[in-house]
Amino acid sequence: MPSSSVNYLESRHDWTRQQVLALFAMPFNDLLFTAQQVHRSHFDANRVQVSTLCSIKTGACPEDCAYCPQSARYDTGLEREKLMKVEKVLEEARAAKAGGATRFCMGAAWRSPKKKDMPYVTQMVREVKALGLETCMTLGMLNDDQAKELADAGLDYYNHNLDTSPEYYGEIITTRTYQDRLETLDSVRAAGMKVCAGGIIGMGEGEKDRAGLLMQLANLPEHPESVPINMLVKVAGTPLEEEKDLDPFEFIRCIAVARIMMPKSHVRLSAGREAMSDEMQSLAFLAGANSIFYGEKLLTTGNPEANKDMQLFQRLGIKPEEYQQYADETEMEAELSSRIAEQQNDPFFYDAAK
Ligand code: SAM
Ligand code: DTB
Ligand code: SF4
């Protein structure tokens, strides 16, 4: 292990590049063992949160994100669609709930929402929430007022990814800055919503960029509650379509380091699962991933079939996390502690705190 004086069970916001690179450099088994210890001290290790995505506005996006099939600048054969009617969104949300999802994530191919869009998206939030689902949206950049409007409508999470390190960012996106992204995350936090922020792995970045991305996320004043780690989905027509495959172990390392650096966050094994074997996904869970996107489609690209995911959960003894509405943080901590205590009665439990 890199340093015996580091207490990996504490939440920290002062990670140095050297420390993060030292985590990446650990022997694979040591890294996974450490990540699993950290995971078990904060979570029920056999529960995975299940979210479903819905593209409420598809294609024709003015931005130039090199990975994205929805950018108007690349010919990816995607049909552009108008903002989805609220009733259609609700239909999809009901189906997601019936399928076992607890969070419904609505995504729009926008640089940022326009004034005229806000009444529709806030209505979506209110009505999806009324179905008993957690709500998440990803609509591009937000200012303080827009974030407040969404928070007032009851939006639980806002997703806005940093995507990569500040140093590599310019290779991927030129139409908005890293600072713009950080400011959106500030607005989301200031409005009182939970933050969902992560990135994409496999875009030709180096390990130092993966370390740089995780450092940015973990050194935010508060860790994002949800950290999606996407593996690039290579879409024909995008500048990254020919990007070479990433060593799967490098991806798993990234999940493990995210788990260690943000011990209380849900780390989502996000886009790219269709290209992963069951064994690779199970390694990601072992490394501390505890959330997935569930349902046959992400926003515009494919995802494993729902029944294949449920079979994998069954084979691994994983249960979907239930949606609990707690009165406050204390009640939530109490519930988690009792789950962790149950886990400690297991003869194979390894107490990381000892
Ligand atoms: N337009 C909004 C924005 O970019 O903020 C929201 C939707 S955008 C599709 C949400 C995120 O999806 C991106 O930030 C990126 O991290 C992820 N994403 C998009 N295309 C992807 C791909 N081909 N592979 C992996 N992740 C992708
Ligand atoms: C995130 O980090 N990944 C999701 C969600 N947030 C919005 C999106 C993945 C998109 C993959 C490409 C597509 O389906 O268009
Ligand atoms: Fe537009 Fe979002 Fe795609 Fe970038 S990632 S092109 S902002 S939809």
Automatic annotation (TrEMBL):
Pfam families registered for this protein in UniProt: BATS, Radical_SAM
Xref: CDD domains: Radical_SAM
Catalytic activity, as annotated: (4R,5S)-dethiobiotin + (sulfur carrier)-SH + 2 reduced [2Fe-2S]-[ferredoxin] + 2 S-adenosyl-L-methionine = (sulfur carrier)-H + biotin + 2 5'-deoxyadenosine + 2 L-methionine + 2 oxidized [2Fe-2S]-[ferredoxin]
Binding positions for [4Fe-4S] cluster per the UniProt entry: C61, C65, C68
Assigned keywords, A-Z: 2Fe-2S, 4Fe-4S, Biotin biosynthesis, Iron, Iron-sulfur, Metal-binding, S-adenosyl-L-methionine, Transferase
Region listing for Disordered, in residue ranges: 334-354
Protein's UniProt keywords contain Iron: yes
Pathway(s) this gene product operates in, as recorded in its UniProt entry: Cofactor biosynthesis; biotin biosynthesis; biotin from 7,8-diaminononanoate: step 2/2
Co-factor: note: Binds 1 [4Fe-4S] cluster. The cluster is coordinated with 3 cysteines and an exchangeable S-adenosyl-L-methionine.
InterPro entries to which the protein is assigned, alphabetical: Aldolase_TIM, BATS_dom, Biotin_synth/BioAB, Biotin_synthase, Elp3/MiaA/NifB-like_rSAM, rSAM, rSAM_sf
Entry protein name: Biotin synthase
Originating organism: Microbulbifer flavimaris
